[in-house]
Amino acid sequence: MTGFYGSVFKRSTTVGILVRNGDGRVLVLRTGSGGWNLPAGIVKSGEDPRSSARRLLRNVLGLESDVGRVLVLDYIQAGSAQPGAGSQGTGDSITFLFDGGILDTPVETFTLAGGERVARFVPGAGAQTLDAAGSHLAAAGCEALELGTVTELVNGAPDSTVPDAVPRPSPMMPPLAGFSTILGR
């Protein structure tokens, strides 16, 4: 397939989860001798991103809790210089990073999935532990949590077309003498 329909079917959707411990450290996973990554997976056909994130929490981490709000949307363009771009196929992809909440445990490192995966908590966004794409995603997720917002990335970098702050709407009525203090102006 070529043209519009060919490009639509080449897009993949992935989800990631930002899980923290009580100290604010971020949970990262490693399978076998591979690198460290945030808990992540592919959204299956017929599944929405939030359901996929719930499945990931249950299957990978063994947690029956729900995921929180979306923290980051990262649109990866095919052929970009972003590490991991197109890793799920040859087309564009989008990653939803959800708030996985706080896992209240004093354990720093543990084994999951019958010894198949190793998990540990790393300081902050884990920039030294994660690859470039993972560290950008984790840093953006931590910032979104702190600011109470959603961060939009394009190829792992902040989207320059998104305004920093939403402009404050102008009042519908001009201030009236004597009433402005009552209305909180």
TrEMBL record:
Organism lineage string: Bacteria, Bacillati, Actinomycetota, Actinomycetes, Micrococcales
Keyword Nucleotide-binding in record: no
Top-level taxon: Bacteria
Nudix hydrolase domain segment(s): 10-144
Entry GO MF terms: hydrolase activity
Protein's UniProt keywords contain Transmembrane helix: no
PROSITE patterns from the UniProt entry: NUDIX (PS51462)
Name this protein carries in UniProt: NUDIX hydrolase
Annotated InterPro entries: NUDIX_hydrolase-like_dom_sf, NUDIX_hydrolase_dom
Keyword terms of this UniProt record: Hydrolase
Entries under SUPFAM superfamilies matching the protein: Nudix
Species: Arthrobacter jiangjiafuii
